[in-house]
């Protein structure tokens, strides 16, 4: 077993930088994909690519299959179904990137409700700041039209939070094995849903231009496999408390990239809401990581 090293080296920082860059750019890829491909079909194609890349790692993991199946259903099926719909109905996806930060406080609240974890004042304050930051967006006239997308993103964040609790019991399972099951169950769930609600989209798959498939492939390989694989690699080498703060750059990059690429406005209220939400997420992330290390 690899011994954990508290200090991050130059290679670790480079890997973390690549991970944040891929996650930050992914918002562009997902939005472009659902602009050119019906959202459920795009989600199906993404999971099909993940499955093809990770298929050789698909295997039964004794004692972990209940968690693996639940993780695959939630992450591969439900999450991508909802998040692609949110992208399809939104124009200013930067607002969705801010709303997407609700996943961290939602995970904290689910841990309290389901796992009976105890949290103290700092993490309570972090959760409150995260919710306040997203709530500020509602008062921005430029973002008001994005309420359906923000609501769907909040639902997707709740699904992600639930899957993150399940993932706690998957430590030691190779990340490519995990995502082979994510891809398989994602395809199993999304294929019939897309066939029912987007039959024209399914029929159009053989005729899709390469650039449209390229956006989907970037999300599948860049964000899911390389991005999450990098996170797993870092966690195998360093304590959680050293690694989790490194992910905080991703939402900032998402908002900036979305604004630059789609020429959507970054209003003062969006900036304020983003700063407040990210500060809350940072508090929850760092304090939770330290608590986890103290228990280890």
From TrEMBL:
Keywords: Membrane, Transmembrane, Transmembrane helix. GO terms for cellular component: membrane. The chain crosses the membrane at residues 12-34, 40-61, 68-89, 95-115, 122-141, 147-166, 178-197, 209-228, 240-262, 268-286. It is found in: Membrane. It comes from the Bacteria. Residues 18-138, 148-285 form the EamA domain. It is a multi-pass membrane protein. Pfam families: EamA (PF00892). The keyword Transmembrane helix applies. Belongs to the EamA transporter family. This is EamA family transporter. It comes from Sphingomonas horti.
């Amino acid at each position: 077993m690899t011994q954990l090293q508290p200090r991050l080296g130059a290679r670790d920082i480079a890997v973390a930088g690549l991970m944040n860059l891929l996650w930050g750019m992914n918002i562009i890829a997902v939005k472009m994909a659902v602009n050119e491909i019906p959202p459920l079909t795009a989600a199906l194609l993404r999971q099909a690519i993940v499955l093809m890349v990770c298929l050789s790692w698909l295997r039964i993991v004794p004692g972990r299959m209940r968690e693996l199946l639940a993780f695959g259903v939630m992450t591969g099926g439900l999450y991508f179904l909802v998040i692609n719909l949110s992208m399809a109905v939104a124009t200013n996806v930067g607002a969705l990137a801010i709303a997407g930060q609700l996943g961290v406080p939602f995970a904290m609240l689910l841990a309290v409700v389901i796992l009976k974890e105890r949290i103290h004042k700092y993490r309570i304050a972090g959760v409150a700041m995260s919710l306040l930051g997203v709530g500020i967006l509602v008062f921005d006239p430029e973002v008001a039209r994005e309420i359906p997308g923000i609501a769907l993103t909040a639902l997707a964040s709740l699904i992600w939070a639930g899957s993150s609790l399940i993932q706690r019991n998957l430590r030691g399972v190779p990340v490519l094995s995990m995502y082979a099951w994510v891809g398989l169950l994602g395809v199993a769930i999304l294929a019939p849903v897309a066939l029912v609600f987007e039959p024209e989209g399914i029929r159009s798959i053989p005729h899709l231009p390469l650039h449209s498939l390229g956006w989907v492939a970037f999300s599948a390989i860049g964000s899911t496999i390389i991005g999450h694989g990098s996170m797993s690699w870092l966690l195998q080498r360093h304590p959680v408390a050293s690694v989790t703060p490194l992910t905080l750059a991703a939402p900032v990059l998402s908002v900036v990239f979305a604004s630059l690429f789609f020429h959507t406005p970054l209003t003062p209220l969006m900036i304020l809401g983003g700063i407040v939400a990210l500060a809350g997420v940072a508090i929850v992330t760092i304090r939770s990581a330290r608590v986890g290390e103290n228990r280890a």
